[in-house]
Amino acid sequence: MSIVRFENVFKEYTLGSSRVHALKDINLQIEGGEFLAIAGPSGSGKSTLLNLIGCIDTPSSGKIYIDGRDTGGQTPDQLSELRARTIGFIFQTFNLFPVLSAEENVEYPLLQFKELSAAGRRERTVKFLDIVGLSGFAHHRPNQLSGGQRQRVAIARALATHPKIILADEPTANLDHKTGEGILQLMKEINHNSGTTFIFSTHDAKVMAMAERLVRIEDGQLVGENIVRA
Asked: pLDDT for 143-186, tens place per residue?
């Protein structure tokens, strides 16, 4: 079963007195465990597509299914619950809380899981900081970490909720070439070891080359796809 399915999805925005057609008749299926990149120039609609997958936004028309669940007609609270338990987010600007340490940033999304004890949260935090190679930096705040280290904290935070899908919006944009390649390789290893689905929004050639499936979007429409590496 597809973990993401779009059926004839349109997305429109009102900008001043005009209507902007951000997405036009999108049909897309993504299987569990894929390492997929959505590629296109700025303004092509790739971030809008990512936001719809992440249940941050809703379509103007059409159907979206996430992990077999129809997102149409869901209340904001229901969408929030689906997001929290199914989807992890990695952003190009890291989006870490500057006043919290690395371990506190990783633990933060777990606070809404009432079934997790403090010991359970601690166990997950330690586990995922170790996976991203930052066990020795648990008590450092973001301003004490390099860009690559901050992105590793963001990856650990995204993984800590045990999501089925990781959405990464231009995750290497603020990193130098070597650091960016290391971050991509880390995510590839996590994808292969855990089966977590990774979906990237990008116009970075490095990300496109690393993806196993590449979906291209232009002017709000899917214009082709190919398997980059089996």
From this structure: 999 999 999 999 999 999 999 999 999 888 888 889 999 999 99
Taking 70 as the threshold, does the pLDDT of residue 228 lie above it? Answer: no
Q: 226 near 208, Cβ under 8 Å? A: no
- Tell me the longest C-alpha to C-alpha distance in the chain: 54
Here the tokens at position 203 are 């116009």
Give the rounded distance of the alpha carbon of 151 from its chain centre.
13
User: Are 134 and 149 contacting, i.e. CB atoms less than 8 angstroms apart?
Assistant: yes
Query: What count of other Cβ atoms lies within 10 Å of the Cβ of residue 51?
Result: 17
Over the chain, what HEC string results? CEEEEEEEEEEEEEECCEEEEEEEEEEEEEECCCEEEEECCCCCCHHHHHHHHCCCCCCCEEEEEECCEECCCCCHHHHHHHHHHHEEEEECCCCCCCCCCHHHHHHHHHHHCCCCCHHHHHHHHHHHHHHCCCHHHCCCCHHHCCHHHHHHHHHHHHHHCCCCEEEEECCCCCCCHHHHHHHHHHHHHHHHHHCCEEEEEECCHHHHHHCCEEEEEECCEEEEEEECCC
The answer to whether the CB of 19 falls within 8 A of the CB of 182 is no
Phi first, then psi: give them for residue 141, nearest 5 degrees: -85, 160
Which domains occur in the chain, in start order?
35-55+76-227 (3.40.50.300)
